[in-house]
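Hi everyone,

Forwarding the result from last night's run.
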Amino acid sequence: MKYSQQNSTLFVVTKPSLQAKALVKLLSSSLPVTAVLHNITHPFVVPPDNALILYDRTATNEKCDLRWQCYLKKIPTSFKLLLIDHVKDEQSDHIFDWPSVRGLFCMADDHHSLIHGINKVLQDESCLSDNLNKRFQD
């Protein structure tokens, strides 16, 4: 199912900060979605169907990650999850604990890579390495 780009909402789930607000503004102006900042310490009500969720693992700890994993697994609407991590550790199995992952980014990625990857996800592709795509299919 292709995502309707005109109606998609991109939730940037992180700790509120000036950097986070600047990222939301950049994503809103560079992508055909409505980007919204969401405080990582508060789960949201059920997101709209076809939402994109950009979850910032660098702004959290394991306990918070586990809480969000459980929460996201219970969401009845369709969504696509993109993770920002400290490094692209493609050998780590932690990525398989997350539902509906379609993209993995790291702190070293620039905003052009992030925007390109989100656009790929909007086109119903993934922004994962071939190695991770193969592991998801196995």
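The first helix runs from residue 18 to 30.

Cheers,
N.
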